[in-house]
Amino acid sequence: MERLSNKFLFFVLTSILLLTFALPLLSGAYTNYIIIKISILSLYAVAFNIMFGYCGLLSFGHAIFFSASAYTLGVSLTKLNLPIFVALLAGLLTSVIFSIIVGFLSLRHKEIHFAMITLALSMLFWGVVMKWRSVTGGEDGITGISRSISMIAYYYICIITVLSCLFIIYKIIFSDFGLLLEGIRENEIRVEFSAHSVVKLRMLAMIISGLFTGIAGILWAFLDGAVTPTIAHWSFSAVPVIAALIGGPQSFVGPIIGTIVYVIAEDFITRFTLYWQIWLGIVVVLIVLFFRGGIVGTIAKVVSEFYHSKLREKYREREN
């Protein structure tokens, strides 16, 4: 039932995203910017949820992969003057290398220990970004990252890239490998007794998660035309955590729904107050308290209860 609801929600959401192809012709530049931002952060959240929702590991270090690929792209284009395709490959390679390093240092630990190690590594990376001014630009970051295309053209490239990445992640999650990750989340001892290395599976999941997070980081750098230390701070690692909690971490589309709610709520609240984090925090707390399993999890539970109630009614009618 859960897999059927996941597939249904996935295709519904994909249909909605496909409809966004017509929006640049109907909406303004700011609306286009918000949609691109939602799509990039959705990819970021879904990639993060490979570790959180399916491996059962809460990471506060995904800002490392996001910002490392973005900074590598920025340095390659603005300082080294490399061709754009070389810069793209360098950015992706950097995110993979950092995911291997973070995985090697953290994946032998679990629960709060894993979370604290990734948090410490994230702050260490942020410190390097802030102090290495000759490369990263320090507090000023790196500016002048040119897309060389119009905003509308970038809109379509970004949407197509994100949809392609989401499809690949979807196929990975709903494969035998994805089932093994869910098995690790539920009972890693049984997975070990089935002759699978839990550490190796987690490492592979970390690399996949880091790679797609790096793609999101590259798209973000092209969107803003700059890279700043904000995206390297540990608080930026909290963005996919919040999105996953809002939407539901044990559903593929949950982080996407959560990202949409998060970005729209942030954009709406900041129009009225500078202290938007307080109000957004209240919203998140209410969702966590009253919508266990997130928005998607709650909807799936209601639909499941309705479906089973109908089955019980039919069974009783047959008995009578």
Question: Explain this structure to me?
Answer:
The protein is an all-alpha fold and 320 residues long. The chain has one domain. Helices cover 78% and strands 1% of the residues. It has 13 helices and 2 strands, in the order H-H-H-H-H-H-E-H-H-H-E-H-H-H-H. A two-stranded antiparallel sheet has the order 1-2. Helix 2 runs parallel beside helix 7. The longest helix has 27 residues. The radius of gyration is 21 Å and the shape is globular. The two termini are 28 Å apart. The mean pLDDT is 86.
The SS-based structural class is mainly alpha
Rounded mean pLDDT is 86
Write down the Rg: 21 Å
The strand order across the widest sheet is 1-2
What portion of residues belong to β-strands?
Answer: under 5%
Low-confidence stretches: none
Oligomer: single chain
Helix residue percentage: over 70%
How do the helices and strands follow one another from N- to C-terminus? HHHHHHEHHHEHHHH
Number of distinct beta strands:
2
Q: Structurally, how many domains make up the residues?
A: 1
- The coarse silhouette is globular
Ends apart, CA distance between termini? 28 Å
Number of H- or I-type helical stretches:
13
Largest sheet: 2 strands, antiparallel
Brief characterization of the structure:
This protein has helices spanning 2-19, 29-54, 62-78, 84-106, 111-131, 133-136, 151-173, 176-193, 198-224, 234-247, 254-269, 276-290, 294-319; strands spanning 142-143, 226-227.
Features:
mainly alpha; 2 strands
Topology (elements, then pairings):
Elements: H1 2-19, H2 29-54, H3 62-78, H4 84-106, H5 111-131, H6 133-136, E1 142-143, H7 151-173, H8 176-193, H9 198-224, E2 226-227, H10 234-247, H11 254-269, H12 276-290, H13 294-319
Antiparallel strand pairs: 1-2
Helix pairs in contact: 2-7, 2-9, 2-10, 2-11, 3-4, 3-9, 4-9, 7-9, 8-9, 10-11, 10-13, 11-12
